[in-house]
């Protein structure tokens, strides 16, 4: 039986299953035996169809599949025959003290797929017939007992006897796959949309359809399958043109071969499994899948997510309004150790640091009940929807970017600078498992940092114009590395008639790229000690870090500062400020730049070469004997208070 381009699992009878007796004479006996055989075949066929295929009621489309899985060691590898089953169920595995299915139904635990947006469910309700109505979460078919592991997004803390397995298998995915394996594939999740979002629950039936693209490498079995089940259960099937799974050369994961193929054949929507023979990385794999896709839009997802109620409709509606939109959901968190749902912030937008690292920034004054799309300078890049033809017009991804890293910035700059827009929709929620760290290598011949820095170099060369010099100054390794040939991407930028990076900055007024600068470089004392931010790769973690004076190394990095005409000393989005928690002998720390805080203002006296704080009168920037940078009484006789600026980056003002 076929449905929507997907062949369901069925038992089939062959000619060999029909007995004949060439030596039997007598027409009556021959007719009787033949009729009996055909009756048996019919009964077997009906049994097999009822057992394994999708079925349709007169009011909804429902798919039923067996969810008992065979295990080799701790690895779930596929569907079991009843004789092989050990009572282990994906939907509710044995796990004391949680109640297991009774012995009478242990071989019949089933997943039930229901298209909750099916018109047949509307009856005579014309409003429902004409529109997609986002239902309450309770309308989603789910018969799981509420005390099953992880239901409603609750944390599952494994009992003592599972702790050893959890610890032993953690490195497989850098999240607790043993915990995931004990949570139902179709677990219930809360509806976390705000009230204004819930009020906007009606969508016209003419929304564009989508090709959902999921690229994975060595993904955990239960996390991948739960991703698929959540999509099917919380999305109008008519809007899913297809789901494209692309296995980027997974190794030693047997369950990602035939067992996965057999699973997706049971899904009630068209699902394609592609495989790379060799590792291409996320970016090239997404491009490969996008070239196969034929939906009106593309929906990129990661392989360890759970989509929440109404998620896709809000995204597609924005693209329908403006085909040059890239629309991102709110990214909620699934904790890597307990798979607990934590609500993502809805009052933030994406920016990026001087070290080319994406980060979130808070939007002041945005109400918690906001239901309007939020313009965002950059996007995280893992989860977003885009018109398929517009994706092609933008040149897809830069395939010179290897594995991942920087592709989100490249797409963000390209979209905004070439006439598009990127928004985050606060009503669309997708929960994502954030790994503790990356569980796999990037490229065999180079470190993960080299690969990512080369990617950043390509983005800087094509899109940042003169501002790439600031990036190079802070990241000398990026400047030294060869990003490869970017001529075709530069030609693409010219072809698309894109604006300048300065225009991009002017649009968003990012605090870490102020236009009113008068100096970018190192700031040193007469004894060749330079201000040093003492931050790591993630600048945002440098908040409240104590600034030091280190030997000048002329390598840029943490010794690059930007001095503005408003007398603030920036390191990215952080500014130098005396520690407000100390009344005297104040050390100098990095705090978020704030135009209203005069404590962050340092007037440079060209006569004395001192940096004088405008809030603390008579106090100057001073280097103590142990190289700490502190606030001290101004003294023109102290060399430790005499500073010089060493210009290293020239930008247009």
UniProtKB/TrEMBL annotation:
GO terms for cellular component: Golgi membrane. It is found in: Golgi apparatus membrane. It is a single-pass type II membrane protein. The chain crosses the membrane at residues 27-48. The keyword Hydrolase does not apply. Its cofactor is Mn(2+). PROSITE patterns: RICIN_B_LECTIN. GO terms for biological process: protein O-linked glycosylation. SUPFAM superfamilies: Nucleotide-diphospho-sugar transferases, Ricin B-like lectins. Pathway: Protein modification; protein glycosylation. Residues 517-646 form the Ricin B lectin domain. Residues 1-22 are annotated as: Disordered. It is an enzyme of class 2 (transferase). Keywords: Disulfide bond, Glycosyltransferase, Golgi apparatus, Lectin, Manganese, Membrane, Signal-anchor, Transferase, Transmembrane, Transmembrane helix. PANTHER family: N-ACETYLGALACTOSAMINYLTRANSFERASE, POLYPEPTIDE N-ACETYLGALACTOSAMINYLTRANSFERASE 5. Belongs to the glycosyltransferase 2 family. GalNAc-T subfamily. This is Polypeptide N-acetylgalactosaminyltransferase. It comes from Adineta ricciae (Rotifer).
